[in-house]
Amino acid sequence: MTRVPVVVGVGLTPFAANRVDASIRDLVAEAVLACMEDAGLLDLKAVQHGLASYESDHFNRQMTLGAILHDALGLTPLPNVRVEGGGATGALALRTAWAYVQSGLCESILVYGGEMNGRSVSSATANGLFALSADADWEMMVGGTYTAFYAAMMRAHMQRYGTTEAQCAHVAVRNRRNARLNSFAQKPMDLTIDDVLRSKPVAEPYKLLDCSLLSDGAAAVLLATEDWARAHGTRFRERPPVYYCATGCGTDTMRLGDRYPEITNFRGKRAAAQAAYAMAGIGEPLLEIDVAELYDSYSGVEIQAVEDLGFVPAGQGGAAVASGIFDADGYLPVNTSGGLLGRGAPVGATGIAQAVEIVQQLWGELPAGRQVANARRGLTDTHAGIGTICVVNIFERRD
Amino acid sequence: MLHANSLTPIQLPNVATVVYEQLRRQILGGALRPGQQLNIRQIEAQLGVSRTPLKLALERLQVEGLVSIHPRKGTFVTIFSPHDLRECFEVRIALEAQALRSAFDVQNRALLAELTDLFARMDSYFRNEATWLDELVEFMDCDRVAHVRMIEMSGNARMKEIYEHANVQGYIAVFGMRFSYSDTLQTQAEHRAIAAALHAHDRDALLVSARTHLERAGLRAVQRLSQHNGGEL
Amino acid sequence: MTTVLSKRDVLTVSAPLQRTPDPWADFRQIEIVTLELTQQYAHSLGKTSRFFLELEARRFFATRCDGCGRTYSPPRSLCPDCLKITQWVELAGTGTVEAYSIMHFASGINDDVKQVELPGVFAYVLMDGASTLFPHWLRCEPARAHIGMRVRVAYTQAEHVQHPIHLMYFEEA
């Protein structure tokens, strides 16, 4: 009997700029209750392991938050583990859970995570706190911010490949348009390319509308062996089984400058994708993946990602994105949830929420316009820093 | 590089070939529309050539299936229907699959080398929007050569005759000119899968990837045809 | 360390999702307090401290690995490729811009950064003789910034800066 984990249930809170009505533990509880309902799980205590996913002690104003969340969910005395991997935290959490199930350490594991990145601090403070996750002795003290690092990277990409600001804007327009069909999204918008190009410059070539959001939110996914899922998830039999069939991880240097001369793209993402494709038996991803959630922390990052994930050759990402091939009605729809640009990005929840979108796509449970027809295999792409830790997870429907 | 939407007077030795190339680009680029009757005298005047090279050029285009010459009625740009396209792709799938089976056993490495070279050239196009249409003609020419070479390298001369007689390349060239950039990306990904199977010397994977490519290309062709011409080209 | 600045607000919020009945109906009155967290650290700059000390003397240093010949700027005390301990080398302090962004905001991480004139150029510079890129502010007319631009290190008086990394910046060569 295979131990490849199946997805028993998924849950999300809406992503919002400012959930004043909730603390981080309230948010995670909301997501977990939604996950239980979705799984048709009658007793949360049947689950054998907990896994807490969050990035920042600063934003959440709490250390050992993993223990607090575990307690709040009534999961004591079950074993628990906390996973952190910067922006890739949620995806790395799932990857860890994959290994826990595969190893036989447990038959089921609840991955829950969230973050309060929204308005509880000013955006200047938020930028300063995120800068703490850059190299604190060098880049941070110079005054560098992630926005600056990403912008410099995109400038180099533009110089080398002729990528344009209008091509980046296509991503910003499309992902926020996709968010209009997602009632849990923070920033659904109907924009034009010109709106993006004319928005306030932030870190050129990026303007305000090229930048993703600071969000409050939480997400949960229940993974298990197929046997456990059949025994405990009352809704499992109603749905086509979705397997979490492959995971890949790759890393790169902390500072962009230390990667010279490879500063236009994400090497770690290429490594993560290759590992995941090898595990899933994928040769030509553009042909073999039906839907994907990509890490669009800035609009141009999606362009770099489609190259590094091998969807298109290096340097063709800009033209590819602008051709509409990744639009909702395109050949390989990406970010149907709205992505980080449209749905939002509470860090500890982001990678989990990407998986939630893909799993719902594979179940075929999303509304018309957002649902990709006959989606059988989906991918999530998540990274920390400027591609410092990259995780690619692949889900497959097998019925 | 010749421009797809203009005619320029010719002062070159091989007149028939140049006339052929100009007319071909006009047809593929859409300047001469399907079903349109060619005004022979006007073309003669525009190009500044005599009847003989023009006649040779038109005969060549007819062999390729791009024009139909009807005695007494005149010469017309061929009309393709979705039905024609579907038939055409069925023939291609049957012939190319058999050709690949034969070529695989004897010419695997040589075919891989040729295809790798052609696919790399196809990847180098489309860096500049201004030259899109001209590069698309070249992209489709590479594509045509790639598929013809698969047939040729089977070593079966009769198969090549049937392939040419079935006139599939004219259809391919015409629908190819309706390609979007997104279509070219899909085509190239499918080609990479074929090359990977050749590289791995995996016969089953080769046949599956080739068949998948032609099936998807057929779907794209019918889709583009319908989009651009309300069902008829 | 944690100061409660104020009991800021008490408010009644509506449900973020329209669900009837609202399962959290009894939990819609919310109190928010404003907290301020401050910390002080004695933070060692560790084995790369010499870089900062040399800046005070207006010298620009990097580290070189004898194993692979790569020169790290910013310095790394241990070569990540060879895992060999590196050697200090002085560079000329000139270089070429390889990537940059015109910034319209700067983090408020320290007073030095707060004084950066905006819009300002945040540049990655390949120092002559180095193998990696050094990030810092390039003080020039933003429109003049471009990849390939020649720049040099300029030095600031020690009494004018808080963090020693701001003993330097880049200017057009």
Question: Summarize this, please?
Answer:
The complex is a heterotrimer of chains A (about 400), B (about 230) and C (about 170). In chain B, helix 1 crosses helix 3, helix 4 packs across helix 9 and helix 5 (about 130-150) packs antiparallel against helix 7. With about 230 residues, chain B is mostly helical.
How would you describe this structure to a colleague?
The complex is a heterotrimer of chains A (399), B (233) and C (173). Chain A has 399 residues and is an alpha/beta fold. Chain A has a domain at 6-120 and 214-238: 3-Layer(aba) Sandwich (Peroxisomal Thiolase, Chain A, domain 1). Chain A is 39% helix and 17% strand. Chain A is built from 16 helices and 11 strands. In chain A, strands 1-7-4-2-3 form a 5-stranded mixed sheet, with helices on both faces. A 4-stranded mixed sheet of chain A has the order 8-11-10-9. In chain A, a hairpin with a 4-residue loop joins β10 (377-384) and β11 (389-397). Chain A starts with 5 loop residues before the first strand and ends with a strand. Chain B is 70% helix and 3% strand. Chain B has 9 helices and 2 strands; from the N terminus they run αααββαααααα. Chain B has 233 residues and is mainly alpha-helical. In chain B, α4 (82-123) crosses α9 and α8 (181-199) runs antiparallel to α9 (203-229). Chain B is globular, with a radius of gyration of 18 Å. Chain B starts with 14 loop residues before the first helix and ends with a helix. Chain B has 2 domains: 15-77, Arc Repressor Mutant, subunit A; 82-229, Four Helix Bundle (Hemerythrin (Met), subunit A) (Up-down Bundle), CATH 1.20.120.530. In chain B, strands 1-2 form a two-stranded antiparallel ribbon. Chain C is mainly β and 173 residues long. Chain C has 2 domains: 2-37, no CATH class; 46-172, no CATH class. In chain C, the strands form 3 sheets. Chain C has a 5-stranded mixed barrel. Chain C has a 3-stranded antiparallel sheet with strand order 4-3-5, covered by helices on one side. Chain C has a two-stranded antiparallel sheet with strand order 1-2. In chain C, β7 (120-127) and β8 (133-139) form a beta hairpin. The radius of gyration of chain C is 24 Å and the shape is elongated. The model of chain C has no long low-confidence stretch (mean pLDDT 93). Chains A and C meet through α5, α6, α7 and β5 of A and β2, β6, β7 and β8 of C. β5 (201-204) of chain A pairs antiparallel with β6 (94-103) of chain C.
